[in-house]
Amino acid sequence: MRHIRPLDEAVANQYCTNLVVNSRYTIQNFLFKNLYEQFRRPLNFYFLLVAMLQFIAVIAPVNPLSTLLPLLFAFTLTAVKEGYDDVKRHWQDHTYNHTHRMVLDAKNSAWVSHINAEIRVGDVLLLRENEEVPCDVIVLGATSAVYIRTDNLDGEIDLKSKEMVQWSTIDPGSHSRRTYSVCEIPSQTEPPPALSIVAAVSDLCLVCPPPSSIIDFFEGRADLPPKPQGTVSDAGTAAVQVPLTHHHLLPQSCVLKNVAQAVCVAVYTGDDTKCGMNKGEAPVKWAQIDKDVSRYSVYIFVCQILNAVIFGFIGFQANRSAHETAWYLPLPANEASASALIYPLRFFLLTTVMIPVSFKFVVDVCKYYMASAVEWDVAMMHATATTAAWQLPESSACIGCKARNSNILEDLGQIDYVLSDKTGTLTQNMMELDSVTICPGHHLSVSNISGTWTTLPEELKKHNPTTLAAVQQFAQMVALCNTVEVVHPHASAGESASVSEIAYHAASPDEVALCLGMRKLGVSLVYRDEYRVVLRMHRGQDGSHYDCGVQVAAKDGEEEGERTWAVHHIFHFSSEKKTMGIVVEESDSGRIWFVVKGADDRVMAMASPAPSSSIASVHSTSSPLHPECAAKLSLYAHRGLRTLLVACRELTRDELTVFLRNVAEAGCLVEGRQAHLDSLRAQMESGVTIIGITAIEDKLQDNVQETIGDMLVAGIKVWMLTGDKMETAEQIGLSCGLYRASDMIIRIGERASEVANTSNWRQNLFAFPIEQLPQSSAAAALVSEPAAQMCGNALEARVLCFDASDSSQLSNEPLRLMAHTAGGIADGTASSTGGGIFVSGAAERSAVLVMEGGTVLDTILRDPRLRARFCELSSRCRSVICARTTPSQKAALTKLVREGGYLTLSVGDGGNDVAMLQEAHVGVGISGKEGQQAARAADFSITQFSDLRTLLFVHGQQAYIRTAYVIKYSFYKSMLISFIQLAYNAIGTHMSGGTFWDSFSLTMWNGFYTLPQTILYCLDRCAPRVVLERNPYLYKMTRHAVDICPSNFFGSFVFRGVLQSIGLLWLSTRLYGPDFAYADCGGTASNDVTFSVAYTALMLSQLYTMWWESHAVTPLNLLVLVGMPLFYVYSTMMYSDNPTLQYFGVFRKLLDTTGVLSALGISIALVVPSIIYFTVLAFLQPNPRDVLRRAEDRRQRLLLKRRDYKRMQPCWVRWFGATPEESSIFCRRGDTAPHMYSEGDLMA
Length: 1244
What we know:
Layout: E1 2-4, H1 9-12, H2 30-39, H3 42-54, H4 65-97, E2 100-105, E3 110-115, E4 124-128, E5 136-142, E6 146-149, H5 151-154, E7 159-162, E8 166-170, E9 177-181, H6 194-201, E10 205-208, E11 220-224, E12 240-244, E13 249-250, E14 255-257, E15 261-268, H7 274-277, H8 288-319, H9 322-325, H10 339-350, H11 359-376, E16 382-385, E17 396-399, E18 402-403, E19 417-421, E20 427-438, E21 442-444, H12 458-461, H13 465-480, E22 485-486, E23 504-505, H14 509-520, E24 523-528, E25 532-537, E26 545-547, E27 550-552, E28 562-571, E29 579-586, E30 592-598, H15 600-606, H16 627-638, E31 642-651, H17 653-667, H18 673-685, E32 689-700, H19 704-713, E33 717-721, H20 726-735, E34 744-748, H21 750-755, H22 761-767, H23 780-799, H24 812-827, E35 837-839, E36 842-844, E37 847-852, H25 855-862, H26 864-875, E38 879-883, H27 887-899, E39 904-908, H28 914-919, E40 922-926, H29 933-937, E41 940-942, H30 947-988, H31 999-1009, H32 1011-1015, H33 1025-1030, H34 1035-1039, H35 1046-1071, H36 1087-1109, H37 1115-1136, H38 1146-1150, H39 1153-1180, ...
Parallel strand pairs: 19-33, 19-39, 33-38, 34-37, 37-38, 39-40, 40-41
Antiparallel strand pairs: 1-10, 2-3, 2-4, 4-15, 5-13, 5-15, 6-7, 6-14, 8-9, 10-11, 11-12, 16-17, 18-41, 20-21, 20-32, 22-23, 24-25, 25-28, 26-27, 28-29, 29-30, 30-31, 31-32, 35-36, 42-43
Helix pairs in contact: 2-4, 3-4, 4-31, 8-10, 8-30, 11-30, 13-14, 16-20, 17-18, 23-24, 23-40, 25-26, 30-35, 35-36, 35-39, 36-39
Organism: Leishmania panamensis
Binding site for Mg(2+): 421, 423, 909, 913
Protein name: Phospholipid-transporting ATPase
């Protein structure tokens, strides 16, 4: 434990300074540390090993620079990027560390200016409004209540109240409360007298726990001397111990608000602060496609090793005695003793290009662009207010998607499961109190009551006085049991503020909705601080109000029905406990109440069977909840409303005294404090009486049902994880389209067993006839490609006959039906039965699984048999709904699905969803009313749930397809230039390990000549975005990895590269073989001429290949495809004109008619077979994406025949005949930015 005495030099020397260092490198260690981090990756270390072996002359077939230069280029770019990022971090550190603060100098008794880095533990600081807190501090005194803004820490811009070190005493006679603080600040502008502050803190001791990264954890104590000084001299002579919690701690980087000056003491500095303890690398996530490529690279590496061993052995055997028969070819002395090792190493170095050194760099560049395109997409931009809830709206801004992890962009195209929070994610998180039920059965529809703020609503006046008194007593309890802040400072007990002007601010929208709803019931919260709450009771037209059923006239000079309550203790809400409680005392009557509200299962568990009649007239019953109220509770849940039970119990003065004494004693503990407080809370919560129910409506967001429907069509399973009760969650699931009314509902939980009149939910789980459900979708991948091909055949006749009038109104429903039918045809089991879903070609009745969280879910997760059964059952269900789940259970369920081998996406909007977002393969946070914690911790952040359609179906598919092709093409072109080396040794070098290419050509191949067009493939679009948006079933193709499956990767690209390299060698050597002679001089062609013809043909063939296999060509692609041959000719001529090189004059010999025609003919011969093969394949098995792309292209061309439509297009569309691409169908007028860049304007 830390014992901190302010202004004590000995204490300060025990702990670190406040120097903040977020940078990773220094000038001294940058080079070494960055190289270590890069070469720590296996692939980079492999390239380094290859480069080092190239410097051994006896085994190096080419110049070492051919490998070293591309390697240095890639590593240098990475190092420059890392260095630039670190320079920015250095600048941020310097700015923060040199910010000046007012610090108390104890020796000179004066306020002096120190920079942040010089602040030490125990220093006394003077902070002013809008200043950033330099370290973790405790407030000793302030001019007013202390508020902070924590957007720098957790992204939330709403104000949070904080407490200062103060204590209170209650006069035994008058029961009046007196409050004391350590320091007094008399002026709003002038610093407090230094001498008085030094005297006030001289004997203060703060006992603090060790540094912790948990933001909401701080269990400390402030010890004051027996004879307080200054402002507390009259507080008595006994020593004072003030419990300190996280509500007293102001974390580093927060901003002080709504307080002129505050005197604080530093308790944690530097890396010991909450912010410093939470610094660290985010969880590293890699896309599934990267893992696949790594596995494929291992296969190619194994193949490379086998080739090296086999060819090396053959070369060693063929050449070991060659010098004996060919005396003019003596064996070099440096090869005589190690020939058996030299030959395999030579062939290993010859084929190192099989794994391209540049492909990782190319993929990273493409990912960076595609992540930027996600952020530029106007379809995901929505106007959002930029101010906090406590401010008046001043402006709005268009906030779009933020991609914080571009490494996993391709995973967006392969999602199998979406696990979603409900409140604020599927719903708007705009709460409105719909109804209340007050025991024993008084029901009020609050939403239908007109908002009257000064008189009692007419809807309530029709009730009898007893009922009206019960309503107002219930409303008082609800208005008291919250942590709402009244944001207008003039609305105090001493001033008559207009109720209509009062606004509320709270961490949870539920509490604001409850306070606004209580206004309609005649009770308004007008003032609240740490120790006092003021409620205003609405009067009738005659100026009277109701108290316990009696109409009471207002007294002269009395404020309008105003009541003051003293707050003794608050039990704050937590996601685990699901309740919030408060101990209050009415000042006039002296009656003491404990009020609690929370989830119905928790409150009913703590309620006593025998109700109290002090709040409302309740009939005796053995159940904690009156039957009429229980029926209303079930009705609210079936309507999808969020329900809370409100309960209370009256305390005696002795009970309060004992409780407060126990709380004070537990609060002074610095170890085991929370356990003691939890025990006291459990004692207080036992035996309460339920007095009513609140039902809050939270409407669904726009387009939620359509979004979930598209996900289900795409084969994505959607799970909803919520803290609501099962009935509410089930109704919300039906409303948002997770299941249909005709679907089978499977319920697992304690209450479900009670409804089914069974004793054990475990028996139900194992006894359920699982064979009634469709088979698991795990086998869908086996039939996905045939299903896609059949889908293409079924669609071709429909889409290709569209005309401009009806194709623009393309409906999703017929295409969805075709997609399902195609899946069934592919497997031969299609059915026309309506109301079913097709999984692996079977049509059976679909089902939804509704699971209860809490102990039931914990039991399932702990028991292997139950877990296995749950996984099997959930995999056969259309959707899964998990109710009453805690944040840890959400993360556990995400991990469970992830461990099943499925790609998961979690989406949430609150801090309680962070663990779930980090556990999933892809975490998507929604910037909502619960702050920015989820958005900041997620890999991607959006503003609406419906944006997932664009994120998955457009950017996810496109990113996956583009990256897949870039990877396949990178290995293909590397195989072209590497395998020819082996073939050349077999026919031309007597297996000696010689090279066909020269070093310059090898260096330029992957480094320059093929690099630009490979990178610019990231501009390609497999289909217009409207096609991807209208046809979500196309997503199944990327989900099942048909674009980079082993057969496609090795068969269509790697094997094609091998065949083309062999064909290239055969054609070039046949044309420029021993029988070839130049017409002008009769000379034969050297090997350099042969390889130059082959290399030129290879260059031309790659231009044809890239043009043919691109789906869309932009002007930038066209510029590179046309300009690269010109650059190749120019650079090679410059290299060939150097008289000091062996290659001198070779390329100019190629520029005659024979050379040009030979290169052109060979290039055509290389690509024609593959073009024929892929054309026939597309004719026999059309790809749905290609079919729909051609249909959209034809529609656009038909529309271009209209003059009015053509005049609206850009000049390159009108002049060059390019095909425009239609904007997103998800864009809505007024919902997106007026003009922003959108990826891709052309499709040719």
